Every structure is written in C-alpha cells, then in structure tokens.
Amino acid sequence: MKPRKIAALVGAGAVVLGVGAWGIWAGGLLGPGEHLPSSVTLFRGQTYAAPPEPQSGLDLAALPVRTPDPARALTPTQVQTLWQPLAELAQQSGWTAWAYIKDADTGEVLLDQGGRDGHTPASILKVLTTLVALEDLDATEPLQTGVSRVGSTLYLWGQGDLLLTAGTSTGTVNGQAGLADLAQQTASALTSQGVKQVKLAYQDRLFEGDSRLPAWTAQEVTDFAGDVGPYAIDTGRTSPGAWEFVDNSAAEVANTFAEALRGQGIAVDSVAVGTAPAEAEPVAHVDSAPQYEQIAFLLRTSDNTMAEQYCHLSALKQGAPTTFAGATAHLIDQLQQLGVDTTGLTLEDCSGLSSNSKVPPHVLVDALEASLRPGSSSAELLRLLPRGGTVGTLDERFGSPSTAGNLQAKTGSLGSVSSLTGVVTTAGGQQLLFAVGVDNAPGWTGYLARDPIDDFVTSLVEAN
C-alpha cells in the first residue's frame, strides 16, 4: 500500500532538530497584526508553498519530528489493550464508547470499536464541514461586504462575512472588515459627488430557507448559534463572547452601518430590505481575512455559526440547494466524491449542534485521510486544527511533554457526548489518525468522559 503523508507545519527560520522540525502556533488565536505564517508544509521529504500572501502569522516554536521506528509501531492487539480501561468505564457509567484508529502511513486499522455505527458526533462534525469547504471554495480569497448605488439609494450587500466589526478594522480575523471603514469610504465617495442624503436598502438573505435550524429549538441549543446569511457582526453575538445572539444579524449590520454613515455626515432617511438592481454602481467595499483564516478561527474556537455558514457557502459555490437540508446533502455528496464511504452518515446540521446527526467514526478518519491525498485542496486542514496544550479548544488539554504541540485534533461536546478526532504521533514515530468518543451518556454527563478520552489518546502516544 502506498504510504500516506502527514503534514507538519514549519515556519520560515524554524530551527531544524534531527531529521526535521514542525511548528506550533505559540499563541492561540490570531491577534492584532498577527498572520498565519508564510511557511512551507513538510510531507516527510516533500514540500509545497503555503497559500500566497497570507494576510495574517503567528510566532512559531520548533519541535523535533520523531523518526518512525517500525519495531516500536503499535499493533492492533496493543491498541485493544490500551482501549480496555475506557471501554470498561463506559460500561460502568452507561455510556456508549466508540473509536476508530488507523495508521496514517500504512492504512492499517488498529482499532475498530463501533467504527461503522452512527454516533452523535458533537463538534467533531466540523472536520467534515471544513474539509468540504476547503475543497469547494477559493480559500485564499476574502469575503467582501460592500455598497452600491442608484441615485439617492444605497444598497448594502455581502458575500457572507460573519466576522465584521462595527468599528474600524481590528487587524484580526474576527473584525478584519470594519463597518466604520466602509461608512467612511462610502461617505467620502458620496460627498465628492455632492450627495448628503440617502435611503439604505440592505440584502437580508444569501441562502434559501431558514437562517437557523428549527430543530435546535426543540433540542434547547438555540443559544449556541446565530444566523447564516450575507453578513453579521461577530457572528451575531449580542456582546463579545456572549452565548446569546441578536434576532436578525442582517438587520443589525444594516442599522449599524446606517449609524456609522450618519456619523460621517450623511443623512440616512430609511433602512429597509432591498436588492440592488443590475444598474447599481459600486461605491465601496471592505474585505474579510482570507477564508482559510476564517476556517482556522472556526476550528479553533469551535464556532457553530461559522460552521453552518461555511457549509452553506460551499453549497452556494457549487450550485447546490442552500437550505439546511441542501447544505448537509451537499456535504455528504462531496465526501462521496472524495472516496469516503458515507453509509450510515445522517446530518441535520453542519456544526454538530443537533443530536439528530449521526456519524460513523470511520467517516471522520477516512475524511482526514482523504485530505492528505496528493494535490488535495484540503491539505491545509490538519494545520488549521487546534493543537494540544497550545491552540484553540485544546489549549488546556494534552499539555504533557508527549502530547503538547503533537496532537492536532477537533474537540466535541454536547450534554451526552464527548468526542475527539485528529492526528497524533506516537513515541515510536507512528502517526495515527483517530476518532474516539462517547455518546448516550445519561443525565448530561458526557463531559465526564473527556479526561478518560484524553488518557486513552495519551496512552497511545506514550506506549512502546
């Protein structure tokens, strides 16, 4: 079998240790003035250029790459033994435990416990969503928010940037495009043409159907996602970090922009929903960070709204229906096009919020494997994931010397679910693709499985 190749990020100027080095982001999220590194990605002896002109980099720390030692490779029997403590705890606790682990280089399946049964994934579903987004979209391009004009009527339009800021650009992924900047540019253009009074019409839809999944209401998870649509400020949150969202993100953007225009001396007589006619002339626009940086933000913060947005954007780009049902169907179709067996995969959303979604663990592992095929548009996926002990939702997990910076994975958590999927390198240099978790935990006790899951994954790293 042809060896698979796993990516490890190296920054320009990283110190080479042993046979190579891989980089970890020393910080968590992109901060002011920081950028995703202008770097190369190593595929064990092969290199290719990172996306051109990254708008955003983080400082890197170099770590040694372990040289694979076949004599120390884990066997299925060993992995089964390591699995037993978690399996026994799950049985005692009334959880359903599952796992699927594959050697990334040989393709050998080392553990298959419920690997082809559908399980509630929680947020590890975002791995599938972002894989398809990276395949479908021009990920180095920004999303634009802009203004066009016919006479005294302005038309506010958007390509789907949900990370706008009300003020001027923050220079970060969340807030790269500022409505105050757009208002200043618009007011300057209007003033130069002697226009001081306008009406504002705004685009209120980008997709078909509901802006939020109705099933979330019955499942009592509506506080964890905002609207999909043409634009939003901070994904529609009522305040930074809040688990509460405005009722109408598009209207919030339009009214905020109108106030910013008034602050620039332009009278805005009315704000109403409206679509720009074909003859509308462009006035101004602002750009988001490149879409792959927004995808990194999505993965590291586990942002549900952004996951649903990028699932819908993928469907829109490829001409598929853009309802929730259409977007999830497109996701499954694209996985099939990548050669992933989707038998048993049923999706109600793309973020993992819905407990009605079911994912066989092997689908997650096979999707990660598909991202590593030669020429893959989604080859950047692994480097965008959270990293153990350093980045995103794993910054306070896997902090031991054996796993910090080593493990790259997406976390998942619902009341009855705890899950993890990604890649890790063992002490013997064996690279493992894995999906592991529990669901059906009684009494919303899924969170109690997080530490045992971490212990199991760590035992894989430290064995042999």
From TrEMBL:
<dbReference type="InterPro" id="IPR000667">
    <property type="entry name" value="Peptidase_S13"/>
</dbReference>
<keyword id="KW-0121">Carboxypeptidase</keyword>
<keyword id="KW-0378">Hydrolase</keyword>
<dbReference type="InterPro" id="IPR012338">
    <property type="entry name" value="Beta-lactam/transpept-like"/>
</dbReference>
<dbReference type="GO" id="GO:0009002">
    <property type="term" value="F:serine-type D-Ala-D-Ala carboxypeptidase activity"/>
</dbReference>
<dbReference type="GO" id="GO:0006508">
    <property type="term" value="P:proteolysis"/>
</dbReference>
<dbReference type="Pfam" id="PF02113">
    <property type="entry name" value="Peptidase_S13"/>
</dbReference>
<protein>
    <submittedName>
        <fullName>D-alanyl-D-alanine carboxypeptidase/D-alanyl-D-alanine-endopeptidase</fullName>
        <ecNumber>3.4.16.4</ecNumber>
    </submittedName>
</protein>
<comment type="similarity">
    <text>Belongs to the peptidase S13 family.</text>
</comment>
<dbReference type="GO" id="GO:0000270">
    <property type="term" value="P:peptidoglycan metabolic process"/>
</dbReference>
<keyword id="KW-0645">Protease</keyword>
